[in-house]
Every structure is written in C-alpha cells, then in structure tokens.
Amino acid sequence: MTKDAVEKVWNSYLEAYGSVSGEDRKRLLKESVSDDVLSINPGDDTHGLENLVTHVEKFQQRLPGSYFKINSLKFHHEQVLTEWTLYKADGTAVTTAHTYGIFNDQGRLKKLIGFF
Q1: What's the CATH number for 3-115?
Q2: Packing angle of the helix pair 3-16, 22-32 (nearest 10 deg)
Q3: Which of 52, 55, 50, 36 lies closest to 110, judged by CA?
Q4: Are 101 and 113 contacting, i.e. CB atoms less than 8 angstroms apart?
Q5: Mean residue pLDDT across the chain
C-alpha cells in the first residue's frame, strides 16, 4: 500500500464517526475496515463490521456533531500509527490521542487499537 492509499482508508474510517447518514456511515466503514475487524479501546472491545457500525452510531449519539482530524500518520509494513484530535461540533478540541492499526491483504483495517 502507498501512503496515499493508507490516508484515504484512514480518512474514510474517521469520516464514518462524523455527522453523516447511517447509510453513508456503513458505506465508509465497509470501505475502510474488514468484515471481521477488531477494535480495542480503553474499556471497550468491538468485533465485526456490524458491531463497529453500532459502536460509531452510539458515539455520535453521545457526542452529536463531533468529528476527528488526523494530526499525523506513520505507515510501514501494512501497519499504521496515527495521532488524531477529537473535536466537538463547535470546533472545540476535546482530546488528542493515538490509534495503531493493521491492514489486511485487501487494504482494509483488520485491527485497531486506540490509546487515550
């Protein structure tokens, strides 16, 4: 994978967390993660695409209009390390943290581990 391809996948993944329709959210996640994706965050593990869709919908219900932006992205050997910032709908920064991800052979994320 090229860095541009990695950034495209990552941006689709983050866009799914934003204020988009349920249909767009599912499409963005299908484009960016595998059907058997494993997402591990402090206090929460999610396995499978459908469960991740539900997780992201609940996130948007808790923090309506919130969104993420990438601060930095490092990539090699089908692995990615990102620094991102979560923003409220009004543009106020909430937190900055990191996520480590592993890509599958189809160029979609199969494992995500958040550190925040």
Answers
A1: 3.10.450.50
A2: 150
A3: 36
A4: yes
A5: 96
For the residues 29-37, what does the mean pLDDT come to? 98
Q: How many CB atoms lie within 10 A of CB 42?
A: 9
**Mean pLDDT, residues 75-85 taken together:** 96
Instruction: Report whether 49 contacts 29 (CB < 8 A).
Output: yes
Q: Where are the domains of the chain?
A: 3-115
**CA torsion, points 75, 76, 81, 83, in degrees to nearest 10?**
-30
The whole-angstrom separation of Cα 51 and Cα 39 is 10
Q: What's the CA gap between 56 and 65, in Å, rounded?
A: 12
| Predicted pLDDT of residue 62 | 94
pLDDT at residue number 22: 94
pLDDT in the model for residue 35 = 97
The DSSP 8-state label assigned to residue 18 in this structure reads S
